[in-house]
Amino acid sequence: TVLANPIDRITVGLQILSRDLGDISNNELDIDWAYGTYRWRDWFGISAGLLKVPWGFYNESRDIDLLRPWVFLPTSLYNERLRDAYSSYTGISIGGDILTDRFGSATYSIGYGEKVLSNDSTAYIMDINQENVFQNIQNKAHDLLLSKFDWETPIPGMRIGASFLTCLLDLTAETNSHQGWIENDVPPGTPIIDNSGRLSAIVLSAEYTLG
To answer: Longest C-alpha distance within the chain, in Å?
Structure first.
């Protein structure tokens, strides 16, 4: 991870990720995120690039162990097999921190962009190709809108939050040279999957830390 402040109020950074999780990645190097941020005020800034997905409390800081109380994050929300799908997106966002003496503090962000996944980049797409009968698989989430609001309440150790995303999801794939296609006279390269639809999801979070 590299972070720098080349000019006042401007931060740029990127993270290179390498992992070996069963049949995932095999120590390949990937750009996990890379973006620049201009912070005009504490309560307003703008970011652009390969941005982190604001998902739950910890998706944006999942690699910073000191910011969370567990060794492993809950896999129901932070599934490592789906990390490529939920780690980052290409786009632009605005956000900031709102600080008050009486009502605690809040952090918000609103982002817009797209996410393109292929069969060689994520286990999420590979799951539909377990029998190795497809090629040129692509899953594109466009018209992607993301928002997040976290509130550190006046009660010490208590915070609540909400994350929301919605997008148009396009899934395409072609036949390969699998024996099943050959036996049915389906040539390689035939479009076989072309699905489109809207995906929406919301995460509501609450956490109380004692001591």
So the answer is: 72
For Cα atoms 32, 35, 37, give the angle at the middle one, nearest 5 degrees: 145
92: exposed, middle or buried (Cβ count in 10 Å: 0-12, 13-18, 19+): middle
Is the Cα torsion angle 70, 57, 47, 86 positive or negative in sign?
Answer: positive
Nearest to 15 by CA among 58, 64, 54: 64
Angstrom distance (rounded) from CA 189 to CA 162: 42
The predicted model scores a pTM of 0.85
Collapse the DSSP code of 178 into the 3-class scheme (helix H, G, I; strand E, B; otherwise coil) and give the result.
coil
Phi and psi dihedrals of 127, rounded to 5?
A: -60, -30
Q: How far is CA 96 from CA 60, 81, 197, in A?
A: 14, 30, 32
pLDDT single digits (tens) 38-77: 999 999 999 999 999 999 999 998 888 887 777 888 888 8
Burial class of residue 165, CB neighbours in 10 A (0-12, 13-18, 19+): buried
The answer to whether 124 and 139 are in contact (CB under 8 A) is: yes
